[in-house]
Specification:
413 residues; binds adenosine-5'-diphosphate; binds magnesium ion; 17 strands; 4-stranded antiparallel β-sheet
């Protein structure tokens, strides 16, 4: 078992976490209480500021675990540092200095990570090596990696883009981009990063994301380069913006990687995501627009870890994160054809209608007229985006993939 870790958030030493028999105890700092006040959900929907230490050790463990990669990626990253993959604090002691959102985890008593971060320039060959290493071993390896932690199953590395080129991040410096390796050429889903770049391009045109993404080649390796929406560049320096995903917000442990899919269960669900938004003072129309887009592009992977919530440094209103990790699956021949989150109790993506989407939104409390407007506007905007988009920018996306999206849009129109 490792020792305790300090949790830094928006420049404040917000809390300390330490192992406990049944989970992990979290102690809020006086500074966090002063800055955000009792009950603020600046860190998480699940873990309001001021909750007494040791009150919900399982919740704390599950939330922190949600920062780590899943499945084989986690166990091989653990093996690389001879850590028990279930020892969440030990994993985060190594990989927790740059995570999704604004949390920075350091050993208890270590200096403010804002003062210790550094960048190490890397060239295309090194990036290619990091990505292939990530594929073979899950993580990037001690020597090579940025030592960052991101959820998901795809081999990835997080890097900082500087005026001088790419750099790996160390000691608490923030990364600015996520690079995900292409699936192998022999794979039925070899175009996954290509359709991700195209789906993000469509989502941008529909107003569902701010994320810029493109497929690039590093030496002999292809990867998608995704700009992080949880980083803001301000006059040369990079600031983190906090986010958590839906599984974290609901306290769902994704130690079982299937648990982030609904498949008829009560949780996760769109309704629960809608509640996080309304509890945080936001409207749910953007979520219904995203759900509609998910159906239109045939994204069967829109599970609880592919929906997130953003909170600014005042901890006030929550906002649905820009769309990310969206891609087209229906043309591949190996798609389950099932939505990750049910819509009006249904999940066969080919059967979902405008009325189902409207009914889903109405079930969260949206007035029917507003729900219908959100759905139909998204269908129309996606239809227009399909006309406007420059397909030659996405040469890796097959005609079959575009056709699937087009026919889905026509059906919903
Ligand atoms: N553009 C982005 N900006 C900020 N965070 C992101 C972005 N894209 C992904 N993430 C975070 O990184 C995690 C892993 O990325 P993702 O693209 O979902 O990988 P995978 O394909 O392995 O699921 C996500 O769960 C999310 O927390
Ligand atoms: Mg993902």
């Amino acid at each position: 078992m490792t020792g305790a870790l300090d949790v830094w958030l928006y420049g404040t030493l917000a809390a300390t976490v330490r192992p406990e028999r049944s989970g992990i105890a979290l102690r809020w700092s006086d500074e966090a209480l002063r800055r955000w006040g009792n009950g603020s959900r600046v860190l998480s929907h699940l873990l309001p500021v001021g909750t007494p230490e040791g009150r919900q050790p399982t919740r704390v463990r599950v939330w922190l675990e949600g920062l780590l990669p899943e499945g084989r990626a986690r166990s091989t990253m653990a093996a690389e540092h001879r850590i028990d993959p279930d020892d969440t604090l030990a994993m985060l002691a190594v990989y927790g200095k740059d995570t999704a959102g604004a949390v920075v985890l350091v050993d208890e008593g270590a200096p403010d990570p804002a003062t210790t971060g550094r960048l190490e320039p890397v060239d295309a060959d090194e990036i290619a090596a990091m990505l292939t290493h990530a594929a073979r071993h899950g993580g990037g390896g001690e020597r090579l990696d940025s030592l960052t932690s991101l959820a998901g199953l795809e081999p990835k590395v997080a890097l900082a883009k500087t005026p001088g080129g790419w750099a790996r991040v160390r000691g608490g410096a923030p990364s600015t981009h996520i690079l995900k390796l292409s699936r192998p050429d022999r794979s039925a889903t070899r175009d996954l990063i290509d359709t991700e770049a195209a789906a993000l391009d469509l989502a941008r045109r529909v107003g569902l994301t701010s994320v810029q993404a493109r497929v690039e080649r590093f030496a002999d390796v292809r990867a998608i380069v995704v700009e992080r929406y949880d980083r803001v560049t301000d006059g040369g320096s990079v600031r983190r913006v906090h986010q958590e995903d839906l599984a974290q917000a609901l306290g769902l442990s994704t130690a079982d990687p299937d648990r982030k899919f609904q498949r008829g269960r009560a949780l996760p669900s769109y309704a629960a995501a809608a509640r996080v938004l309304t509890d945080g003072g936001s409207t749910t129309d953007p979520l219904l627009r995203l759900a509609t887009f998910t159906v239109l592009v045939g994204n069967t992977d829109a599970h609880a870890k592919n929906h997130s919530f953003v909170r600014q440094d005042d901890g006030a209103r929550v906002r649905l994160a820009p769309a990310y990790d969206v891609s087209m699956h229906e043309h591949t021949g190996v798609s389950s054809g099932l939505l990750a989150l049910d819509v009006a109790g249904r999940r066969a993506i080919a059967d979902i209608t405008v009325d189902d989407l409207v009914a889903e939104g109405v079930s969260w409390g949206l007035p029917p007229v507003r729900a219908r407007r959100a759905v139909t506007q998204t269908v129309e905007a996606t239809s227009a985006a399909l006309v406007d988009i420059d397909r030659s920018v996405h040469p890796g996306v097959s005609a079959a993939a575009w056709d699937h999206v087009e026919s889905r849009v026509q059906r919903l129109r």
